[in-house]
């Protein structure tokens, strides 16, 4: 099914399709043959796909992992936007640059079409293993479909709908529309005004006269029924064409839910392939918190500004996330940090641009300023540790700053320790006090953050704090992501925004 980049593995089974998922067609192997091009033109006749035909060709293991990672970044951002209650318009602004960079769909490029198709099915393997993962995957993929649909032209939208085999997607006759015209117009008038910005009555009437309506069982668009956006008669809902996306999305969700169950039933057949399972486990375990950021970009926002002295300046420290502020406060109070705290703060400072000489000066000053430790004892007991963190001792590994997932995997701090994530480790009263008084957040904002904390969505809580303390700005994006899944990502975005406000207006 897959081949390695440099050599073909012939000793392993080629897993044939025995589940009945295929409808007779399949994606060919990795050559750009004319037959393959024709197949992808069929699958992507309208730039979108329901992914009904599973792939059965060959790709490299490198493509397998990298394509899945790129799609996962997009889905993680969508999931974060959903959890932060972003509107459809706000979500489109956030996700669109990420789509254009990682998962373009408005192109005729064969490789990019293959990437979109394969990455969807690879992530099916990752997120079919539990109901929670399936629900999140369905929600994110369905939202991705909606975003892409709304980003297409009306001609492409109509072309996509025609390619779908949806028997309920039938339009009513002109006679039936005329018979129910009064009720239909009264129902959709507000949607025409607020969704399509048709503020003039004449404009709304003209649009209504040209609009076509779909008649389908009301349970197919139950979301619109609850908000009274469709007219109901004898168990049928009358759906205007500009709202057909709700029905399409529900059909896609239903199809994907069934497909994930079938995929889960086929998972045991993968147990014989030890190439794929580590990759799949790595991808699925990173669903809640992405650790695929380009960490080489960390430190660019400061560009050598952080040293043993400036790290204490208000201009630098106000960009610190709460976990880093907590560590700095603990270091200031005790003139010492225990091992986990030293490691977490040391790697964070390394990530924001502090070099090894300044780091040694910073830690030496912090540990000896309380009078309990001499410079000689610091050099004897701690110097090696900090040089090791910079890859200058031992195995000389260039350690990366800890991301949120790594921090959350460490033991919780006990008394006298300051490492970890405050959103997880602090009690409600302490966290509320810090958010309301330390960060000047309103009671409504604090409640929203605490709700995320209660649902154990700690990175979402941190992302909310960032947006609330930075006026909701997403003007500067690091690695095209707004979801905060790394303390250094918080710092980079904050520092870039700070520099933007400091820059003189030309």
TrEMBL record:
It holds the Pfam family DNA_primase_lrg_N. GO terms for molecular function: 4 iron, 4 sulfur cluster binding; DNA binding; metal ion binding. Binds 1 [4Fe-4S] cluster. Its cofactor is [4Fe-4S] cluster. One of its GO terms (biological process) is DNA replication initiation. GO terms for cellular component: alpha DNA polymerase:primase complex. Keywords: 4Fe-4S, DNA replication, DNA-binding, Iron, Iron-sulfur, Metal-binding, Primosome. Residues 316-491 form the DNA primase large subunit C-terminal domain. The keyword Metal-binding applies. [4Fe-4S] cluster binds at residues 323, 404, 421, 462. Gene3D superfamilies: 1.20.930.80. PANTHER family: DNA PRIMASE LARGE SUBUNIT. Belongs to the eukaryotic-type primase large subunit family. DNA primase is the polymerase that synthesizes small RNA primers for the Okazaki fragments made during discontinuous DNA replication. This is DNA primase large subunit.
């Amino acid at each position: 099914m897959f081949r390695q980049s440099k050599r073909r593995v012939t000793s392993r089974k080629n897993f044939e399709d025995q589940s009945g998922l295929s409808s007779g067609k399949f994606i060919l192997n990795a050559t750009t043959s004319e037959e393959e091009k024709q197949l992808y033109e069929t699958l992507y006749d309208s730039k979108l796909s329901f992914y009904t035909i599973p792939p059965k060709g060959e790709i490299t293991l490198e493509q397998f992992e990298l394509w899945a990672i790129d799609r996962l970044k997009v889905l993680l951002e969508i999931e974060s936007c959903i959890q932060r209650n972003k509107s459809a318009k706000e979500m489109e602004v956030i996700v669109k640059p990420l789509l254009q960079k990682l998962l373009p769909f408005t192109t005729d490029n064969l490789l990019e079409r293959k990437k979109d198709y394969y990455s969807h099915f690879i992530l099916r393997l990752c997120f079919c293993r539990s109901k929670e993962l399936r629900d999140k995957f369905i929600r994110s993929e369905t939202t991705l479909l909606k975003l892409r649909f709304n980003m297409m032209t009306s001609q492409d939208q109509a072309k996509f709908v025609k390619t779908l085999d949806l028997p309920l997607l039938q339009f009513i006759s002109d006679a039936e529309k005329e018979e129910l015209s009064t009720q239909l117009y009264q129902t959709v008038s507000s949607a025409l005004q607020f969704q399509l910005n048709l503020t003039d009555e004449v404009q709304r009437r003209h649009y209504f006269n040209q609009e076509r309506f779909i008649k389908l069982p009301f349970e197919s668009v139950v979301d619109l029924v609850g908000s009274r956006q469709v007219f109901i008669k004898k168990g049928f809902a009358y759906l205007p064409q500009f709202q057909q996306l709700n029905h399409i999305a529900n059909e896609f969700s239903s199809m994907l839910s069934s497909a994930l169950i079938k995929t889960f039933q086929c998972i045991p057949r993968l147990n014989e392939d030890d190439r794929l399972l580590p990759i799949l486990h790595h991808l699925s375990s990173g669903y809640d918190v992405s650790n695929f950021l380009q960490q080489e970009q960390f430190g660019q926002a400061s560009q050598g500004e952080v040293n043993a002295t400036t790290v204490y300046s208000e201009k630098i420290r106000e960009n610190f996330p709460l976990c880093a502020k907590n560590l700095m406060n603990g270091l200031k109070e005790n003139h010492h940090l225990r091992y986990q705290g030293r490691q977490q703060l040391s790697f964070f400072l390394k990530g924001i641009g502090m070099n090894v000489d300044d780091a040694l000066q910073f830690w030496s000053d912090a540990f000896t300023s309380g009078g309990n430790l001499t410079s000689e004892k610091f050099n004897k007991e701690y110097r090696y540790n900090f040089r090791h963190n910079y890859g200058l001792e031992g195995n000389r590994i260039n350690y990366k700053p800890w991301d949120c997932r790594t921090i959350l995997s460490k033991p919780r701090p006990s008394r006298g320790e300051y490492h970890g994530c405050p959103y997880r480790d602090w009690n409600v009263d302490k966290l509320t006090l810090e958010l309301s008084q330390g960060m000047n957040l309103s009671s409504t904002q604090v409640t929203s953050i605490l709700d995320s904390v209660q649902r154990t969505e700690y990175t979402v809580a941190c992302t909310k704090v960032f947006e609330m303390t930075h006026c909701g700005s997403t003007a500067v994006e690091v690695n095209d992501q707004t979801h905060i899944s790394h303390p250094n990502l918080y710092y980079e975005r904050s520092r870039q925004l700070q520099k933007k406000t400091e820059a003189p207006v030309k």
